[in-house]
UniProtKB/TrEMBL annotation, chain A:
Gene3D superfamilies per the UniProt record, alphabetical: Tetratricopeptide repeat domain
Protein name (Swiss-Prot/TrEMBL): ER membrane protein complex subunit 2
Top-level taxonomic group: Eukaryota
Native organism taxonomy: Eukaryota, Metazoa, Chordata, Craniata, Vertebrata
Quaternary data: Component of the ER membrane protein complex (EMC).
Biological source species: Neolamprologus brichardi
């Protein structure tokens, strides 16, 4: 089988840099990380210098994600040798136990870390992940709420909590989490758009109007967000069709919907230039927009 | 209740969808190009989402678009499939029931299909699926003997082969389409590949 270096015609430095980029972007492309990382470690370990330790950690986690316990253990053993008393490595040991579904043992490891260092956020998050893996959503939500009382600025935790609430259909609380995220990170178009989706799902005129506003805000932050564009179209159309709104509100929303429809059509026309398959989506969207117009007016 | 037949194309794409996003809950729609009455023949599927399944706007959008596409191509939506992120839990979620209910409003013999993640490894010889049908406004487990997959061994082999060669990365679900609208959620290219692998000219797999 061809090596990664052969297949992509790259040298070890490029492989190392790619791994760094994936670390910085927090990508979960575990299969790729395993392919590149395994080769880098086995053939170029001596050239990596001190980088090798963080690469061992990255590859180990990716290996767990791909059920490659052999590779994970190799990496873990190297890390244990180099950093025998490290909490960070202890957490990795715990993660391997989680991957093997030995949750009680994993919890013991994390509890030991927390005995030593009660502020260790990584261990707390792993314990919450175990609850999630076991399907114990209510407990996971409770623990995560407690965690966030202490660590109020932790975006990752707020986002995780919003996902848990969405899966429990508790849209009000999910919206609250997304509001916190938007406060911490007002320029993130994804949070605006997700908030708008939650509001839309909650339903009712007030929530629909809020959802339209936040879809619009998401578009202001990123005018290529197709979900926001479609969301704007749908929320505005639904408001315009509601019997409870004034003539002015109806007129305004029909204008917003019409604008969104034009943008959608334009985007699909641009995308449709080229392959025959894309023309199919374009036609579908055109027809859909037309049919929704008929029902809305 | 009635018999349901699952085509190779529908099964393989569902399977590839689940394998493409092993860490997420995924869902999609089951389609039929056969006329109604008698056995429900699921001839195709459209993979929909791999994130935020319970949220309404994108699901509504996808349902509308697939509906329009179906009327353009003489197909109809006859069912819904889902695979949960948590491998040990293959029961239909409230959102699965809701969407399946909506489909049942338009098609009496609608089916709800759950993929059983724990049975998807290569050494399992039976289809990793659990099907439900609607009776008295409730979704009940369907008798296994009313579910047919013609040429199951061949279908299973095609699915495994495509995973091996990385073809599952070619699959486009509606979520991915919204990330890049040049991608085709009807998956014509993948359909062609499946056809090629299934064609008798290919000999034994």
């Amino acid at each position: 089988m061809a090596s990664v270096a052969e297949m992509y015609d790259v040298g070890w430095e490029e492989m190392r840099d790619k791994l760094r980029k994936w670390r910085e972007d927090n990508c979960r492309n575990s299969e790729q990380i395993v392919d590149v990382g395994e080769e880098l470690i086995s053939e170029h370990a001596s050239k990596l210098g001190d980088d090798i330790w963080i690469i061992y950690e990255q590859v180990m986690i990716a290996a767990l994600d791909c059920s490659r316990d052999d590779l994970a253990l190799t990496c873990l053993q190297e890390l244990r040798k180099q950093f025998p008393d490290s909490h960070r490595v202890k957490r990795l040991t715990g993660m391997r136990l989680e991957a093997l579904e030995r949750y009680d043992e994993a919890n013991k490891h994390y509890d030991a870390i927390l005995q030593d260092d009660p502020t260790n956020t990584a261990a707390r998050k792993r314990k919450i992940s175990i609850l999630k893996a076991q399907g114990k959503s209510t407990e996971a939500i409770r623990e995560l709420n407690e965690y966030l009382e202490q660590f109020v600025g932790d975006q990752e935790a707020w986002h995780e909590l919003s996902e848990l609430y969405i899966n429990e259909h508790d849209y009000g609380k999910a919206a609250f989490c997304l509001e916190e995220l938007m406060m911490i990170n007002p320029h993130n178009h994804l949070y605006c758009e997700q908030y708008a989706e939650v509001k839309y799902t909650q339903g009712g005129l007030e929530n629909l109007e809020l959802s339209r506003k936040y879809f619009a805000q998401a578009l202001r932050l990123n005018n290529r967000n197709m979900r926001a564009l479609f969301g704007l179209y749908m929320s505005a159309s639904h408001i315009a069709a509601s019997p409870k709104v004034s003539a002015k509100v109806k007129k305004d929303n029909m204008k917003y919907a019409a604008w969104a429809a034009t943008q959608i059509n334009r985007a699909y026309k641009l995308a449709g230039r080229g392959t025959k398959e894309n023309k199919c989506s374009m036609k579908t969207v055109e027809e859909m927009l037309e049919s929704m117009q008929i029902t809305m007016s | 209740m009635g018999e349901v037949e699952l085509s190779c194309r529908a099964y393989v794409k569902m399977y590839l969808h689940a394998c493409l996003f092993p860490r997420c809950s995924i869902n999609g729609l089951l389609l039929s190009s056969s006329p109604t009455g008698g056995t429900v023949c699921v001839t195709d599927c459209v993979p929909l989402l791999h994130s935020h399944l319970p949220l309404a706007p994108i699901t509504q959008l996808a349902l509308t678009q697939v509906d329009v596409w179906c009327s353009q191509t003489q197909q109809r939506i006859v069912g819904y499939y889902q695979a949960n992120a948590c491998v040990s839990d293959n029961s239909p979620t409230p959102c699965a029931l809701k969407i399946a209910d909506k489909i049942a409003e338009q098609f009496d013999n609608a089916v709800l299909l759950m993929l059983d993640g724990s049975k998807m490894s290569p050494d399992y010889r039976v289809p990793p699926i659990v099907m439900y049908e609607r009776k008295d406004s409730r979704w009940i487990l369907k008798d296994k003997h009313t579910i047919m997959l013609r040429q199951w061994e061949e279908t299973r082999a095609i699915a495994s082969q495509m995973i091996e060669s990385g073809d599952h990365t070619l699959l486009v679900d509606f979520d991915s389409h919204l990330d890049d609208i040049t991608k085709d959620w009807t998956n014509q290219k993948l359909n062609t590949k499946i056809e090629e692998l299934a064609s008798p000219a290919n000999g034994n797999i």
